[in-house]
Amino acid sequence: MSEEEREEKKKRVRKEYNRIKKIYKDMPPDVKTTVDSLIHRAAFMRVSLEDMEADLDERGFVEFFSQSEKTEPYERERPVARLYNTLNKNYQSIMKQLSDLVPKPKAIESTEEDQLLAFLKKK
User: Fold this and answer.
1) Residue 108 to residue 75: CA distance in whole angstroms
2) How far apart are the C-alpha atoms of 12 and 18, rounded to whole Å?
3) Rounded to whole angstroms, how far apart are CA atoms 32 and 53?
4) pTM for the full model?
5) 76 neighbors 63 (Cβ within 8 angstroms)
6) In the chain, domain spans
7) pLDDT for 109-119, tens place per residue?
8) Which of 11-50 are b and which e, b meaning 16 or more Cβ less than 10 Å from the residue's Cβ?
9) How far apart are CA 103 and CA 95, in angstroms?
């Protein structure tokens, strides 16, 4: 990876980090510390997954492989495909942890109609 590609990836990770961080801006300070490290990991993972997806779209999930010139090549899973699956699973786990920390909306108070229906059901 060239220096230019590394810088571009850093920008993409920073952009994703800022996108996710906005969701957690109203968290208590003690939770923000934990959330921040998870957000960093999630941002890096998402950008890496996007790069792997582009590679897999272009080159596929399998490749022909041969142990030597004398043996017949066979199809095998590309190493990037295995890495993609593992990274995706870990990314989903982190996103689950983050989503569990999102403040839940307060229950919508019942309307007068709901209260009336509840009253009528009692009778």
Assistant:
1) 56
2) 10
3) 30
4) 0.75
5) yes
6) 12-101
7) 556 667 777 77
8) ebbeebbeebbeebeebeeeeeeebeebbbbbbbbbbbbe
9) 14
